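Show me a record, fold above all:
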Amino acid sequence: MDYSCIVFDTAPTGHTLRLLQFPSTLEKGLAKMMSLKSKFGGLLSQMTRLFGMDDEFGEDAILGRLEGMKDVIEQVNKQFKDPDMTTFVCVCIPEFLSLYETERLVQELAKFEIDTHNIIINQVIFDDEDVESKLLKARMKMQQKYIDQFYMLYDDFNITKLPLLPQEVTGVEALKSFSRHFLSPYQPLCKRGTVEDLERRISMLKVQISEAEAELEKLRK
């Protein structure tokens, strides 16, 4: 496939770890089967002749397929362990269970020798305005506790925080807009109350309008 980058959106931690174990498990299984060739090769030949199977299902054909499969699995394992070709990005939310699962995943990836140095913390509640809701204040305080733990545990990782939005991110334009936060950290709006705050908000809005106008101009061309 002629792509510069391929992204796999994996299942939750337990399923992902089993998926990552599969190439190594299959490689060991194939190696075991190949080692039994000398012991049962003659029996396999007799069985194929007994049931009148053609060369397609003969001993040499089956062993050839196993050898080919083993080569592919070895190549997959090699690519998994090459940091220039493969890296794993952990996506989590600022809660206890997610922090625990992320730590478990990072430890297992280290055992598999798979590169990982990026963590995305999703659904973060930022203090965009003066928050009046007691529930939101409590959630923000709880989230901040676990965010601090993420930074303490993974001080050598690249950590990106993404905001909790009031709507779903669906559609190409919404995805493009949201994806900017991967390159430029999300900046919550300043609190109201001073001229300086309003000027900063106006400046941010002008930048967003300028970007939108540039995209519109490209579409018109």
